[in-house]
């Protein structure tokens, strides 16, 4: 009697399989990310896929646990799959203390996990490019990061008019809140963060509930609507506000010089939910904001201190793979997802050992090569060569081949020829 | 009153941090793996970091759970961090059924997790290159995989005498067991697998406990000690045994032709613990076997069927990063782990905007560039340039620069010069 057949378990909810077609797209994105980061002098790092839970609750509070894949391991440690990379980065910085020469520029392409409702542009498992500059309070660090964002989006083929990097400043917002007499900001920020997602009435009534007067709320609402540096300048008066705005001015000036200026806009409606931002915050959107944010980040000068280390200034951003891929697809900027090969080695007589010998010779020269894996009719071999995107088919036993050489066929043109291994290797097709 | 400072949680046990120095080494290994796999015509794929637990228990039985990072997610699904990639591969194959053109050659570099005692060459979180060929029973699939192993180890700079690929066959062992009258093999295999790890007396007594006679055990012991094809040939008589040996003969012949023959040896002591192997099995060791296996694999023609799909033949191997890195380090084959940059852009007058402008120009040409991130004394700038492995320092405001050009210094030689951006970009240093 047969035992009933097992039901194959499905792909876990909110995660993805990467068959070769989608993997090539993923690698295309990762390659451009990595090359851009290296071109900007960032060094790559990585960490474990999970951390002790306290690393996340220490930064974001207990509420975050509901969004984590957390569990007790067999040694009764409470661990969590990483939902973001910054706490790991902070741990790395704290661990090495002063032996790390600062400032430094690092990047990583972590795989991250959040237990939340899966929806368009938002999965439970995703990848994110992270760039961070640690150890300097200089606004030129922000300029470096924002230049890198603009350059890498252009590397993908996007034009400056395809995306917009909105810049705001927690420092400026704090200073302005002080100016208009709002001192208890911790309750105010979550409302400001939701400002564009809720109705105007709700925004007003929620702020009233935190103790703001109608006039304060009106001023704040108008302030966050400011569209230019001049407009802000006309609204502020304190030295703190002016200093924070000067920083933004310098940032915009440097970004003009770096060639990234066209994509930058002032957008004081940006708050960023995470409580640990202390200065400039920014978000990158497709023009028209038809999708979720492509990237977001900001300055977090207190994070290391919060996690048990010394105070170390830092600034960084994350750019997810899902929204970016959607945008690139929409703009027709994704490459072909088909396999490609330099050579397919075939045989009229199914001389398998000869096939392996010749394939080895081409591979030793660095070329990508495939061949049949069992005796196969020639028609079928040609089918395989085409399906695998081979440029040239090399026949190991063609009668017209020169001594030590081979007949070949260029698949794109159908051209037949014969030559030595070296001649065939040099074929420009 | 200050709240007591948080204690930074440590790196989770059995996992690793990759600071940039170790990340460069890791990328060196991954790059060679990936290039070799692509050169052999394998296509990359990936899957989720965790699967439903049944995918692993379905393949390996309930005992495996003790070695897994398994947990219930917030939707009460019992999931496990993947301990190996093959079950995910099988799921991918089963899901697509006949729409996947077979045979096909795939590779992946999964991050894997096993909850076990951390020790030298064995961690709880590690990476593994996997190559698999799905959809053919042909022995040329094994030849392709073993050639790829030999070639990629040589790509790392290892010589054929540095490693040895031991080949055995479950089919041959099964046929020989039948020849000597052993029919109940499922209890015998675990003992055969431990043969070289336990005392000879224990091997004999454990086999006796499974019902083998002393003579059967002696024959088996001698058979597994066979050092050559000729030696095996003299010991076998059944058609099944001969057919299985013929397969090995063909494999060795093809590997000679492919240029990978020198590393291949017959080693019938190899059994491989996993119950699902059905044909050729193999393990790769450093010569002298001073370390754990560098790689191991074999044929698994029943796996998809076991996991709820149709019967689909498959063969593959895994090569971990930890043992390989240890071996390469021991042989002095790891590259420098230092950062390197094409250009460092400096300024005598701390003209930060000009620095960003010039850095942008070199980056647009594809070069890697760094520069100070705040106004910095020239001596300190030169220190940074050296520490970051820059080849050339470009001064944005040197007085001897031609119109639109720059002064520069080649750091390896100390040579000073001046030229246009294009001339400097062309410098061969």
Brief description of this entry?
Chain A has helices at residues 20-39, 54-60, 86-96, 139-155, 170-179, 188-194, 200-209, 214-224, 229-235, 239-258, 303-306, 321-330, 352-364, 378-387, 421-425; strands spanning 43-44, 50-52, 70-72, 78-81, 104-108, 111-113, 125-134, 163-169, 264-266, 280-286, 295-299, 314-320, 341-346, 369-370, 390-395, 405-410, 416-420. Chain A has 429 residues and is α+β, with helices and mostly antiparallel strands. Chain A has 2 domains: 20-46 and 84-330, 2-Layer Sandwich (BirA Bifunctional Protein, domain 2); 341-425, Anticodon-binding domain (Rossmann fold, 3-Layer(aba) Sandwich), CATH 3.40.50.800.
SS summary, helix count of chain A: 15
CATH topology of the largest domain in chain A: BirA Bifunctional Protein, domain 2
Number of strands of chain A: 17
Q: Largest sheet of chain A, described in full?
A: 9 strands, mixed
Q: How many separate domains make up the residues of chain A?
A: 2
Name the quaternary structure.
Answer: homodimer
| Rg over C-alpha atoms of chain A, rounded to the nearest angstrom | 28 Å
> Judging by the overall fold, what is the CATH architecture of the largest domain in chain A?
2-Layer Sandwich
Instruction: Give the CA-based shape of chain A.
Output: elongated
Beta strand % of chain A: 15-25%
Q: Can you tell me the residue ranges of chain A where pLDDT is under 50 for at least 5 consecutive residues?
A: none
For the largest interface in this structure, which chains are involved and how many residues does each contribute?
A-B, 102 and 103 residues
State the helicity of chain A in percent bands: 25-40%
Chain-averaged pLDDT of chain A: 94
CATH superfamily of the largest domain in chain A: Bira Bifunctional Protein, Domain 2
Q: Which CATH first-tier class of the largest domain in chain A would you pick? A: Alpha Beta
